[in-house]
Design goal:
alpha+beta; two-stranded antiparallel ribbon; 3 helices; globular
Amino acid sequence: MKYYINKSVKGLSFEQAIDKVTKALKDEGFGILTEIDIKATLKNKLDVDFRPYIFWVLAIRLMRTKYSNQRVL
């Protein structure tokens, strides 16, 4: 079972693609809970060069609003 979505965007720089996708996610009601810059993390922690790569954890605004006041055990 696949627990992720990935998509290649051609004709845009990495920064342009990130801006476009961020706006599209916001327009569809998603919020970015966590953003990890994999390239920077690998460079800082292991001194490894890697291609531009961002990892996001997303939340749907409706769920965030509905459950934001509940305690998690």
